[in-house]
């Protein structure tokens, strides 16, 4: 099971990196990191970093759209 999880996680992660120009490819990267984080602590750190970055980006976009709407 571990080998399947690592293989699938690596394929998703690398596929997401290769397809960075397409919309939705970040979901492949996140999915790959989730699968890899079960076995690799470094992948867990990358996953936490990407979650923090995505959350702060979403807050900035929300704030921008709210200010734009109030004008």
Mean of residue pLDDT? 89
Shape: elongated
The tally of beta strands, per DSSP, is 0
Helix content: over 70%
Distance between the termini: 54 Å
Describe the largest sheet.
Answer: none
Gyration radius (Cα, Å) is 15 Å
**Strand residues, percent:** under 5%
Q: Which stretches are low in confidence, meaning pLDDT under 50 for 5 or more residues running?
A: none
Class based on secondary structure composition and strand pairing: mainly alpha
Question: Helix and strand succession?
Answer: HHH
Count of individual helical segments: 3
Report on the architecture of this protein.
The structure is a single chain. The chain is mostly helical and 71 residues long. The protein is 85% helix and 0% strand. The chain has helices at residues 2-18, 25-37, 41-70. The radius of gyration is 15 Å and the shape is elongated. The termini are far apart. The mean pLDDT is 89.
